[in-house]
TrEMBL record:
Upper lineage: Bacteria, Pseudomonadati, Pseudomonadota, Betaproteobacteria, Burkholderiales
Top-rank taxon: Bacteria
UniProt keywords, alphabetically: Acyltransferase, Cell inner membrane, Cell membrane, Membrane, Transferase
The UniProt record lists the keyword Cell wall biogenesis/degradation: no
Major localization class: membrane
Originating organism: Massilia consociata
Cellular localization per UniProt: Cell inner membrane
CDD domains documented for this protein: LPLAT_LABLAT-like
Protein name, UniProt field: Lipid A biosynthesis acyltransferase
Pfam families documented for this protein: Lip_A_acyltrans (PF03279)
């Protein structure tokens, strides 16, 4: 692991176009040799985009592996490059909503696109709260914490700690950087459509917003063309959210994410088993 981390450290000296192309080359190789993950991605794309041909979905899956590997290589910049260099590569649209974030409880909804860590950097104009998964390898865990903490104060909360530290952070004025669009099982989830397929989806976004009165501001990070860096877009705070129906609030979240995925389909996390948890009696999609 230390040798791998040393190699990653060396990568941050490379110009971004070289680093990006190197990552994409590794991603092309991963697409060929990681058969299980390739099948998961193709299954997800078949379910979510039935209107596309097999060859079109195959091309998106291959592009996704390239984009994902590229994001791993470019993480070396986020971890070790100067903050000035990193921020010079981030194009924020229209602007970081700092005044809104400081005006009251805020949830930053960040879907699982491959550049999501860049969205976290762009949002760090004030201290934040974020969920953190401790790593088994001590050196890697230390590095991940360093990557999260080097841009300013951040309150990291593990899933085992539950919701109370998040509620406390929101009440303390720390925006919560939230990534709820994965299959975490049936607990605290409802089956709501994602691209028309019932998907076990956490209702936590609506429940947190209702409990704390927090506004929800989506933020999505994608690649700029020609290896120029990253685009981070902050969307207007959702109006009349969550309302009284938490299932409908969760459906609204999924519909928003669908729209963003269609804008940059290769950059969404297709290798995750998004439909692993099925309604009672329904067979698995991934067998």
């Amino acid at each position: 692991m230390r040798i791998l981390l040393g190699f990653m450290w060396l990568l941050h000296f490379l110009p971004l176009p070289i680093l990006g192309r190197l990552g994409e080359a590794v991603g092309s190789l991963m697409f060929l040799i990681l058969g299980k993950r390739r099948r998961i991605a193709l299954t997800n794309l078949r379910l979510c985009m039935p209107e596309k041909s097999d060859s079109e979905r195959h091309a998106i899956a291959r592009q996704h592996f390239r984009a994902y590997a590229r994001s791993i290589f470019e993480r070396s910049l986020l971890w070790w490059a100067s903050e000035a260099r990193v921020r010079s590569l981030i194009q924020v649209e229209p602007a970081v909503p700092q005044a809104e974030m400081e005006a009251g409880p805020t949830i930053l909804l960040c879907p699982h696109f491959v550049c999501l860590d860049v969205a976290g950097v762009a949002a760090r104009v004030i201290p934040l709260c974020s969920m953190y998964v401790p790593q088994k390898n001590e050196a890697f865990d230390k590095l991940l914490r360093h990557g999260r903490e080097r841009y300013g104060p951040v309150r990291l909360v593990t899933r085992k700690e539950g919701i109370k530290p998040i509620l406390r952070a929101l009440r303390d004025g720390l925006p919560y950087f939230m990534l709820p669009d994965m299959d975490f099982g049936e607990k605290d989830a409802e089956f709501v459509p994602f691209f028309g397929i019932p998907a076990a989806t956490l209702t936590a976004l609506g429940r947190l917003a209702a409990t704390t009165g927090a506004k929800v501001i989506p933020v999505v990070a994608t690649y700029l063309p020609n290896y120029q860096g990253w685009r981070v877009r902050f969307y207007p705070a959702w109006e009349n959210y969550p309302g009284d129906d938490m299932v409908e609030a969760t459906r609204r979240m999924n519909a928003f994410i669908e729209e963003r995925v269609r804008e940059a389909p290769a950059e969404y996390f297709w290798t995750h088993k998004r439909f692993k948890t099925r309604p009672p009696g329904e067979p698995s999609f991934y067998d």
